[in-house]
Amino acid sequence: MNSYFKDDSHFRKSLECPPCFNVACVAVAISPKQEVALRNSSDPNKTTLLFTRSEWSVFIKGVKNGEFDLS
Question: CA nearest 31: which of 15, 59, 54, 50?
Answer without folding.
Answer: 50
